[in-house]
Amino acid sequence: MTEIQKAEEALKNTEDPGTIAEILEANPELKDLGTGYEYGWSDPDTAGATAKRGLDEAVVEDISSKKSEPEWMLKLRKKGLKYFERKPLPTWGADLSEIDFDNIKYFVRSTEKQAQTWEDLPEDIRNTYEKLGIPEAERERLVAGVAAQYESEVVYHQIREDLEAQGVIFMDTDTALKEHPEFFEEYFGSVIPVGDNKFAALNTAVWSGGSFVYVPKGVHVEIPLQAYFRINTENMGQFERTLIIADEDSYVHYIEGCTAPIYNTDSLHSAVVEIVVKKNARVRYTTIQNWSNNVYNLVTKRAVVDAGGTMEWIDGNIGSKVTMKYPAVYLTGEHAKGETLSVAFAGEGQHQDTGSKMVHMAPNTSSSIVSKSVARSGGRASYRGLVQVNPEAKNSANSVVCDALLVDTISKTDTYPYIDIREDDVTLGHEATVSKVSEDQLFYLMARGLAEDEAMAMIVRGFIEPIARELPMEYALELNRLIELQMEGSVG
Amino acid sequence: MSTLEIKDLHVSIETEQGSKEILKGVSLTINSGEIHAIMGPNGSGKSTLAATIAGHPRYEVTSGSITLDGEDVLEMEVDERAQAGLFLAMQYPVEVPGVTMTNFLRTAKTALDGEAPKIRTWTKEVKDAMEKLRIDADFANRNVNEGFSGGEKKRVEILQLELFKPKFAVLDETDSGLDIDALRVVSEGVNRAHQENNMGTLLITHYTRILNYIKPDYVHVFVDGKVAEQGGPELADELEANGYDRFLAQVSA
After folding, report:
1. Is B103 strand, coil or helix?
2. ipTM score assigned to the predicted complex
3. What's the domain range around B78?
4. What CA–CA distances, in Å, run from B4 to A430, B48, B79, B86, B90?
5. Which of A24, A205, A252, A398 is the most exposed place for a label (fewest CB within 10 A)?
């Protein structure tokens, strides 16, 4: 049944159709009609309905005491709050003036206790994750560990026994702070300091949930660890905090996905992700961000990489109203490598302001940024990147490739490449292209039997293929499916 | 048996100087199994006819009709024309970055037939067809037309012609840019499609040399947006000997 048939069906089944509002109330699934967003449902929401709105010191103290945190963390939170209050909104990048910080719920506890099996979760929450396919991926052993965050806290968590036996730690950040305080005293806030930027400060003040990962020396986690972030309540602020430490010669791939219901007013997601890559270790961090179009997604992600280590960011931004996110790599040891593959998709009402930051702080370091963006239906996709080479970082090399694809004439793309080089002995490359889906390309594919939107989707899929092929198979398929959903109805 | 019928076709394009009429009343009837060659000098409207049959949006039909077994082709979208059995081998095939030939061929075949081809037989069919057209096996994993030479692009057009099995094919200067060996290989492909599927063919060309390999039943001389003369294969021989001067003189007179 098509969506329109469903709507007609629903109208027929209502004796007195009544007003549009009444129809929508009776058939909430119709709200998402034609938006192409499949994850827009919401669960009944007792915890969210009673949650406090707005932010002050009492909110920060309340979060910290609920988590029975050590004193130093509360102090750091309060420092974060001060920085957040003091720092102005960024004047560059996307328009953030409409965020109503007083209307946001900063902490929502949806279950009392973290579950060890999916059956232990409240039914609504379990059903949501079933619909998202997370338990299935775990059952099929496509992932080596799962963390599921719902509102402010991780509600389910599991790691494969063999990894645990090898000393791999994968748990929610709140629990990790209690069980492994030594890591937190050393690394928390070391990669992204409390006052780094307004939203990192906000996260430090009210952080809750997120993942902590430690991979011991020489251990290779061959199958990805997966985290899934779900916002349920309206005007939610989700502030997860992730810390990953890859010890010498280790390898781990961490994947995160995120969705939220569609609401008329905005939610805020402001995460901080800190990654420590030690000598000759390698970390790959993959994000498929598919927030609904009422979420401000303002995230700070950064890795420090020691000698011979490699950090790879694979960053897919499909959803959200506004995203500002520039995963960074600080190359602090010789022969360290940084890589960002970024794909952004900006549809109607969306602004994706994304890119990457590479800072060369040691000789013989190398980095590359490949950014692909697609804009349609009036959306705006911006690439913003910084390449910095410090003095003495001799023989460093960087290349930046950013390609933008415009699907129609009302959408917008722009590029802000910043380069700051303090060393002569460097190799740099920069390429940027903007292309439009040409009449001839569409004609060629349609002349081979493809409908216009199928042809468009094929062109777009091909455009982002260099990034899709870096994803595990099931994520590549998911990305393709999301693009097809986005492209439906994109052509007149 | 099928019939593609073009009646008194007038076609214009938008230029900076306004609307310009390119086809000025073209009539042609092609039946299954027939090969019609359309010959004519540059700018006579041959490629416009090809693009109009396939439905390129740049060309506006101002009057006349195109029907396929009585169905109004001009009412159909580009993809519907392809699904109805019309195929255009393009003069300038377009690159589609990031889409492999394998993916493209299977997607197109599925769209054309309304169902996915059976994987095992299809894979073999594609492999055999590529071998016959002397297309290297690694082309299957390359992106559609990306970095292909002119000759490779043309072979890949004919590959599609053989795999998609249309009722009618329009070959828009498929011979241009081909060396002698490639010309022969491509011509053999067209002849196979013609024999195996009883395909009707509209062969557009400047040169007579392709007619040494593909024998037309009819030859139409195209000048200034109209068919200036029609005849059998012997008309091509006359053009080979005397060129288009006789027809061009008529126009300027």
Report:
1. helix
2. 0.96
3. 3-252
4. 52, 17, 17, 9, 19
5. A24
Which positions ≥6 away from A253 have C-beta within 8 Å? A221, A223, A224, A225, A283, A284, A285, A286
Query: Residue B124: is it exposed, middle or buried by C-beta count within 10 angstroms (0-12/13-18/19+)?
Result: exposed
The structural domain count of chain B equals 1
In chain B, residues with a C-beta closer than 8 Å to the C-beta of A447 are 54-55, 78-79, 81-82, 87-88, 90
B141 and A CB contact within 8 Å: no
User: Does the beta-carbon distance from B54 to A443 stay under 8 Å?
Assistant: yes
Residue A438 and residue B94: Cβ atoms within 8 Å? Answer: yes
Residue A442: alpha-carbon gap to chain centroid: 32
CATH of the domain at B8: 3.40.50.300
Is B78 near chain A, with CB under 8 Å?
Answer: yes
Q: Which pTM does this prediction carry?
A: 0.84
Measured CA to CA, the distance from residue A414 to residue A375 in angstroms comes to 10
Task: For residue range B36-91, list pLDDT tens digits in order.
Answer: 999 998 889 999 999 999 999 999 999 999 999 999 999 999 999 999 999 999 99
Which of A138, A312, A140 lies closest to A225 in space, CA to CA? A138
- From first to last of the 253 residues of chain B, give the pLDDT tens digit: 999 999 999 999 999 899 999 999 999 999 999 999 999 988 899 999 999 999 999 999 999 999 999 999 999 999 999 999 999 999 999 999 999 999 999 999 999 999 999 988 999 999 999 999 999 999 999 999 999 999 999 999 999 999 999 999 999 999 988 999 999 999 999 999 999 999 999 999 988 889 999 999 999 999 999 999 999 999 988 888 888 888 877 665 5
Q: Which two tokens stand for residue A235?
A: 């005007």
Query: In chain B, which residues have their Cβ closer than 8 Å to the Cβ of A438?
Result: 94
Strand partners, A156: A115, A148
The 8-class DSSP code of residue A470 comes to T
Phi first, then psi: what are they for A3, rounded to 5°? -60, -35
Element (H, E) at A137: helix A134-139
